[in-house]
Design a protein that fits this description.
Elements: E1 4-6, H1 10-23, H2 29-51, E2 64-69, E3 75-80, H3 87-94, H4 101-111, H5 115-119, E4 136-144, E5 152-156, E6 162-166, H6 169-172, E7 179-186, H7 196-206, E8 214-218, H8 246-256, E9 265-273, E10 279-286, E11 301-306, E12 309-312, E13 327-332, H9 341-344, H10 348-371, H11 373-387, H12 389-393, H13 398-404, E14 407-409, E15 412-417, H14 419-424, E16 432-437, H15 441-445, H16 451-455, E17 461-463, H17 466-474, E18 477-478, E19 481-485, H18 514-526, E20 533-536, E21 545-548, H19 556-566, E22 575-578, H20 583-589, H21 597-611, H22 619-631
Parallel strand pairs: 2-8, 11-13, 16-17, 16-19, 20-22
Antiparallel strand pairs: 1-6, 2-3, 3-7, 4-5, 4-7, 5-6, 9-10, 10-13, 11-12, 14-15, 14-17, 18-19, 21-22
Helix pairs in contact: 10-11, 10-13, 18-20, 21-22
Length: about 625
C-alpha cells in the first residue's frame, strides 16, 4: 500500500496550537501523557487476553521502554507492547480529536449492538498525545495491532497534516506481536529532554505508580547488567500501606491532579474492604476546592478499576455527589472485566461500594476532627457546604454527616461548633436547637431576632450556606432535639428567665399597657395589606421591631431563595413583632392620635426589612417618612 497524505480534522488544527502553546505550563507532562497512553494500551491488551485466551500466546510481559538517541538523531522513543493500532485506527484516532479509548470503551459497548466491533476501538489515544508537539517538531507513530500482520507508520509535524504508510522492515522489526513506537524528534529549544536523568526524574515524579515496568536507556546501548525498571511498577493502591511512604502518596496525588495545581492532599484514606464484597480504595481529600466543585453536573473524580484494569472515570453511581471533592481510585475484585455501562447502573456491587466508601470517609473525617482540628477546619471551610448536600439526598448517612458538621454560632467566632457541642451547652429545659439562617455571618450576629437569646445566654447556630435551608426540610431533628428557627413562629423565652446582664424591668411574659395595645391595633390596621399579624415580642431587647415567619409559613431565608430561583409567590404574610418596652414604642403609644402615626408604622416595618438585609418596598416613601421624623425630632 502506498503512502497516503491526509489533513487533520479542523478541530485538531485548532487543538494542536492550544496544546503546544497554552494547555500545559509544564512541558514535562508530555512524557506523562505518552506513558499513560502506553500503560492504557497494555491494560487494554490484558483485557482482550482475559476475554480471548488465544490472543495471549507466548508474549513478553507488558513493559514500556523509553530510548534516547543522540548519536544518529535527536530523538526520544516511547515503546510499548500493548494492543497497538491498525491503519484505520491511526487515521481515526490521530487525525481527529480522540476520546480516550480507555475511558470510553464502556460507552462504545453500550452504544454498539456489535460488542466485538466496539471493542476494536480500545486502542484510541486521548488529547494528551498531542502534547508531544510541545517538545518535538516531528512525531512518528509506528504501530501493529494485536491479531494483524501489518505495521504502519503515522508521521506529522503537527501543522500541515499527516501521512500514513507501511512500515519498513527496520521499523516493523521494532514490534513483535503488537504494540506502538512513538518517535519524537526533539526541538532544539527542548533539548534537555535528551538527557537521561531529566527523563528519569519525570518518570519517578509522574509515573512511579504505573502498573507496567518502565525501562530507560540509550539506543544501541549494550550492557551485561540486568535491566531494572525506573518506576516501582506496581499500582500504588495494591501495595501494603507499610511499604508506601508519604512521598509515594504525594506523587500519586500529583498524578491524579494532573499537575495543574499546587494543591496538597489534606487527608489520605487507603484501605481494603473484605467480606461480602472486596475492593481497595485510595482516596485523597484536597486542601483546595477543585474548579468544578459547584458545577451543576455534580460529577465525582474517582476512577473505577476492576482487578487493576482501568474501566472508567465516569461511573456515576460509584460515588455520592456530596463526596465529589474526593480524588482517587477504587479497584473492585467482584465486578467482571467486560462490564457495560448498563451493568454499572444500579449494580448492587457498585451500590455497596458507594455506601462503604461514604461510611469510611465520614469516619475518617470524624477522626480527623478529633486528631487535628486545624486540618479538619480547613476541610470544612472548603467542602462543608458540599458535604451537607448529603443530608438532603442521602438519609442513610444522615447521622454520620451530622456528626462531622460544624457551624458558626452566637458563642463562637470560628466555624467549629458541632451539634454535640451545642447540645452539651443547652440550657436546662431547652428542647430545641435554635438557629438562624442568612447569607452573611456578621449580619446574622447582629439580627434583632437574636437579642432575647443573647440576653439569656442561649446559643443560636448561624447557618450561612444555601443548602442549610434545604436539608432542614428533611432532617428536622438531631437526636431528641428539634431544629427551630428563631425567625419563625412564636418562641417563649420567658421560661429561661434572665441573665444578670438583663436589667430590663419587663415581666418574664411580656404584657402590653392599654396604650401599647391601642398602638398595636392601629399598626395592624395600617399594615393589614403587608403583614399577617402584629404581636408583642419575647425576642427583642434593644430593637423596636423585627419580622418573623408565621408558624406554618416558609422561613424567611428559604422564602427569599424560592423567590429568586423559582419565582415563588408566597401566599402567607410575615409577622411584625413589636418590643413593647422599647422607648420608641412607648413614645409612639403616647401619640396614637398624631396624624403621622401611620407613617411611623410603615417605618417600623421598613426598619425590620432593612435589618434582614432586604430592600424596602417604596424607597421614595421611606425617605419622605424618615425625613419628616428627623425634622420634627425633639
Amino acid at each position: 500500500m502506498t503512502t497516503e497524505t491526509l489533513s487533520f480534522g479542523t478541530d485538531v488544527g485548532r487543538l494542536l496550537d492550544i496544546v503546544a502553546n497554552a494547555l500545559y505550563s509544564n512541558k514535562d507532562v508530555f512524557l506523562r501523557e505518552l506513558i499513560s497512553n502506553a500503560s492504557d494500551a497494555c491494560d487494554r491488551l490484558r483485557y482482550e487476553c482475559a476475554k480471548n485466551t488465544k490472543l495471549k500466546g507466548n508474549r513478553e510481559p507488558a513493559n514500556i521502554r523509553i530510548l534516547i538517541n543522540t548519536d544518529t538523531a535527536r530523538t526520544v522513543s516511547v515503546i510499548d507492547n500493548g494492543i497497538g493500532m491498525d491503519r484505520q485506527d491511526l487515521i481515526d484516532h490521530l487525525g481527529t480529536i480522540a476520546k480516550s479509548g480507555t475511558s470510553s470503551i464502556m460507552e462504545e459497548l453500550a452504544k454498539s449492538k456489535d460488542s466485538e466491533k466496539a471493542l476494536n476501538l480500545i486502542g484510541q489515544f486521548g488529547v494528551g498525545f498531542y502534547a508531544s508537539f510541545m517538545v518535538a517538531d516531528k512525531v512518528e507513530v509506528i504501530s501493529k495491532k494485536i491479531g494483524t500482520d501489518e505495521t504502519n507508520v503515522w508521521t506529522s509535524d503537527g501543522k500541515t497534516g499527516f501521512t500514513i504508510e507501511p512500515a519498513t522492515d527496520e521499523q516493523a522489526a521494532l514490534i513483535d506481536q503488537s504494540g506502538t513506537v512513538i518517535v519524537l524528534h526533539i526541538k532544539d529549544e527542548t533539548c534537555e529532554y535528551l538527557v537521561a536523568p531529566k527523563l528519569q526524574d519525570i518518570i519517578e515524579t509522574w509515573a512511579d505508580h504505573v502498573d507496567v515496568p518502565i525501562y530507560l536507556g540509550q539506543i544501541d546501548e549494550d550492557s551485561d547488567e540486568e535491566e531494572q525498571p525506573v518506576n516501582a511498577a506496581s499500582a500504588l493502591w495494591t501495595r501494603p500501606k507499610s511499604e508506601i511512604t508519604d512521598e509515594d502518596y504525594n506523587k500519586f496525588f500529583l498524578h491524579l491532579s494532573m499537575g495543574f495545581t499546587a494543591d496538597e492532599a489534606l487527608m489520605t484514606t487507603h484501605w481494603t474492604a473484605e467480606g461480602m464484597i472486596e475492593y481497595t480504595a485510595l482516596l485523597y481529600t484536597p486542601s483546595m476546592r477543585p474548579w468544578d466543585l459547584f458545577d451543576p453536573g455534580r460529577k465525582h473524580a474517582v476512577e473505577l478499576y476492576v482487578k487493576r484494569v482501568f474501566i472508567t472515570k465516569d461511573c456515576k453511581d460509584l460515588m455520592y455527589p456530596w463526596l465529589r471533592f474526593l480524588r482517587g481510585v477504587i479497584d473492585s475484585q467482584d465486578l467482571p472485566l467486560n462490564i457495560s455501562r448498563e451493568m454499572l447502573q444500579n449494580n448492587p456491587v457498585i451500590e455497596k461500594i458507594k455506601n462503604g466508601v461514604a461510611t469510611k470517609v465520614l469516619k475518617e473525617l470524624d477522626k480527623l476532627s478529633k486528631d487535628n482540628e486545624a486540618k479538619f477546619l480547613t476541610f470544612w471551610q472548603q467542602f462543608g457546604a458540599v458535604l451537607k448536600e448529603g443530608l438532603y439526598d442521602a438519609a442513610e448517612h444522615k447521622d454520620g454527616i451530622l456528626k462531622v458538621c460544624r457551624f458558626y454560632s452566637t458563642t463562637s467566632d470560628t466555624e467549629s461548633v458541632s451539634l454535640d457541642d451545642y447540645v452539651s451547652r443547652m440550657k436546662d429545659g431547652q428542647k430545641e436547637i435554635y438557629y438562624i439562617s442568612g447569607e452573611n455571618v456578621e449580619t446574622l450576629q447582629n439580627s434583632p431576632q437574636l437579642e432575647g437569646f443573647k440576653a439569656r445566654d442561649i446559643e443560636v447556630l448561624l447557618f450561612k450556606d444555601t443548602i442549610d435551608d434545604f436539608w432542614l426540610q428533611s432532617v428536622p431533628n438531631f437526636g431528641d432535639y428539634k431544629f427551630m428557627s428563631v425567625t419563625k413562629g412564636s418562641i417563649d423565652l420567658a421560661n429561661f428567665g434572665k441573665t444578670e446582664d438583663d436589667k430590663s424591668d419587663a415581666e418574664p411574659t411580656p404584657k402590653a399597657s392599654p396604650k401599647v395595645e391601642e398602638l398595636i391595633t392601629l399598626i395592624k390596621s395600617t399594615l393589614a395589606d403587608e403583614v399577617g399579624d402584629v404581636t408583642i415580642s419575647t425576642r427583642l431587647t434593644t430593637s423596636p421591631s423585627c419580622l418573623i415567619a408565621g408558624e406554618h409559613e416558609v422561613d424567611l431565608k428559604m422564602e427569599r431563595i424560592l423567590k429568586n430561583q423559582q419565582q415563588y409567590d408566597a401566599n402567607g404574610k410575615r409577622v411584625l413583632e413589636i418590643n413593647a418596652d422599647h422607648s420608641l414604642i412607648q413614645k409612639l403609644a403616647e401619640n396614637t392620635a398624631n396624624d403621622h402615626i401611620k407613617d411611623a408604622a410603615h417605618l417600623l416595618l421598613d426598619q425590620a426589612k432593612i435589618a434582614l438585609g432586604e430592600p424596602v418596598d417604596n424607597p421614595t416613601e421611606f425617605a419622605r417618612r424618615l425625613n419628616y421624623f428627623i425634622e420634627n425630632a425633639n
